[in-house]
What we know:
Elements: H1 2-6, H2 10-18, H3 40-56, H4 84-115
Amino acid sequence: MNSFYNGLDAEEQGKLHDATFTVEGSGSSTVVSATGETSQSVAEAIARYDYIIAKYGESSYTNFINRTITPIAGAPYVIPTTNTNSSTIIIVVVALTSITSIGVLLVIKRKRSLVK
């Protein structure tokens, strides 16, 4: 994307750098060309660009368009307290035990009905 942006002329780069536009249904400011006419897809692309830079910061992604972006607070990363492999094993064991129990009960019930 950076190389594509660098391939644009200065006027086109300026339109992306300075513009604002409300993406339908989102209420967030994104992009509009200097003439006020912009396609929805360009507006959505710049909205995604702004969101990624705002969420992950310029230490993770380069703000090559040099847009003024206010960082947003992300959800704090929570380290899982249980081992996911252990949880998976427990779920599988409980499921197999349940299926086996239901099968045994059905066999016993069938045998009782045949004996009568």
